[in-house]
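Re: that chain you flagged

S.,

Sorry for the slow reply, it's been a week of failed gels. I finally had a moment to sit down with the sequence you sent. For the record, here it is as I used it:
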Amino acid sequence: MKASEADILIVPGYTNSGPDHWQTRWEGKLASARRVEQAEWVKPVREDWVERMNEEIAAATKPVVIVAHSLGVATAVHAISKENQHKIAGAFFVAPPDVENPNIRPKHLMTFGPYPRDPLPFPSMIVASRNDHFGSYEHARDIANAWGSILVDAGESGHLNAESGHGPWPEGTMVFAQFLSRLKPPLPSS
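Prediction finished late last night. Pasting the structure tokens below so you have them in one place:
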């Protein structure tokens, strides 16, 4: 699949992705990408975020490819339903937080847990760091196994955001391009 053949939904996490974040850069470079905007970025409410995600999936006119970072991963996974999964061609998840960890800060991020444990009905990839303070690599491995996702080890890369030096993130661009090239449009629903 080519980027132009998909509706690429950029799903930022807590506090949104700023101008230097790789998600913002990708959104600017990919003509078929759009951000899932939230009304409240600083005090996220799971139901509101999931509802916005569902609205964007419903509005898609082409197969959906999800590009989620951090709390956006939890949002996207909770939004997947029997009603919309036929529209999703694949999901590229980066730095999934451990939303069940009682030490996560801010505490209200825990309201996005627990993650569903069922295998995802479409191809997915998780890119995780070995020193992400929002979620351990072991946690990422566990959910990758549950979801049937390919797990990519990003080494010691922090939270894979602008603050950890991943503004341009050329390695991520290459991994995403390879992932996208393997996707096929989902079958029409009957």
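What I noticed first: Helices lie at 22-29, 46-59, 71-79, 137-147, 170-182.

Talk soon,
D.
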